[in-house]
Amino acid sequence: MPRYFDIHSHVTFKGYDQDLEEVLQRMRDELVWTITVGVNKATSEDAVKFGEGKEGFFSTVGLHPNDTEKETFSETEYKSLIVNPKVVGVGECGLDYYHLKDGEVGKKRQAREFEKHIDFAIKYDKPLMIHGRPSRGTVDTYIDMLAMLESKKREVGEKLRGNIHFFVGTVDIARRFYTIGFTTSFTGVVTFAREYDDVVKFAPLDMLMTETDAPYATPNPFRGRRNEPLYVKYIVGAIAGIRGIPEETVREATVQNALKMFVPSLDPKR
Predict the structure, then answer these.
(1) What is the CA radius of gyration of the chain?
(2) Which site in 85, 162, 184, 258 is 20 to 30 Å from 211, CA atoms measured?
(3) Strand ordering across the sheet containing 32-37
(4) Mind listing the pLDDT tens digit for each residue in 67-101?
(5) Residue 230 contacts residue 237 (beta carbons within 8 Å)
């Protein structure tokens, strides 16, 4: 069983070309598990291949909202990936207005693709790995995603579940996600930025996840360098400090939450 669970990384990306085996060995040494996340068809295929035969490595498959200008999500194309036993979720998918170039047309396109992911996840009984990045100074993507998810939740109930990755919203937004059974995960940003402290303190302990988003969002004390899943332990420590509770409490809770959501067959409390 893992000591730490980094629920969102991209260790198949080019940043690991030179020393991937060393990165993986450091993870094995400290019992760090991770979910390798696809952002389009090609990287989803890479993530699935990478997870096969490796203990403590899982994957998700999906189309990042910023890639919907180039691709569309097709159940036919992703069906062969989702049935792989190491695939534990659908995504990274969602809405991203921060990088939006074509206004309302782009929003409608992203919403159509996100709706496909939602239906796909329900059909194959998998949690969603959701990306939401609002336009500057707003929570607009979260408002739009919640409208879609809350409506679907009323239709299908517990079949709809997932995690909001790299959460940067408010306490009120977080509360709405928790109400419909969606967790939030936090990255290395919480080790050096204070604007998320209120949400980290507010979150029920059983709704918290930890992630690195490696190779991005490197935590202190490694800022300026490439991130890696091992560094999830610094995020656990930062969350414990913000909440004023023992680090071991956060470590145990986030591992259990990850297992419950993504690998329930391995959840000892199931």
Answers:
(1) 17
(2) 85
(3) 4-9, 32-37, 57-61, 87-96, 128-133, 162-165, 182-186, 208-210
(4) 999 999 999 999 999 999 999 999 999 999 999 98
(5) no
